[in-house]
Amino acid sequence: MVIEYSGNVIRSVLTDKREKYYDGKGMGCYMFRIDDYEVVDATVHGNAARFINHSCEPNCYSRVITVDSQKHIVIFASRRIYCGEELTYDYKFPIEDASNKLPCNCSAKKCRKFLN
């Protein structure tokens, strides 16, 4: 285990509204989906996990685990991580059509060229 992705747990239906609010304030938006109903919004009340970048060849992976009937997002190392090495995981965004593709800049040898 490397770190838990923490923040405010909100209902999925609120994510678009919050994202528009943050965009209007010129803020970055840091959200991680737990399941179809809940999302962790780490934008204001999150920890350093929100700054972990995507990679098509990551050194970490994420899992939703349940502890005392509460769901938590935890980032685990998939291999040994060396001092000074950037932490990364695959964001696994849903596949989108060509007009909504987000370019990937991970520079991995096997980069998929898009996050979605």
Automatic annotation (TrEMBL):
One of its GO terms (cellular component) is histone methyltransferase complex. Transmembrane segments: none annotated. InterPro entries: Post-SET_dom (IPR003616), SET_dom (IPR001214), SET_dom_sf (IPR046341). Residues 1-92 form the SET domain. Keywords: Bromodomain, Chromatin regulator, DNA-binding, Methyltransferase, S-adenosyl-L-methionine, Transcription, Transcription regulation, Transferase. One of its GO terms (biological process) is positive regulation of DNA-templated transcription. PANTHER family: HISTONE-LYSINE N-METHYLTRANSFERASE 2A, HISTONE-LYSINE-N-METHYLTRANSFERASE 2 KMT2 FAMILY MEMBER. This is Uncharacterized protein. It comes from Mola mola (Ocean sunfish). The lineage of its organism: Eukaryota, Metazoa, Chordata, Craniata, Vertebrata.
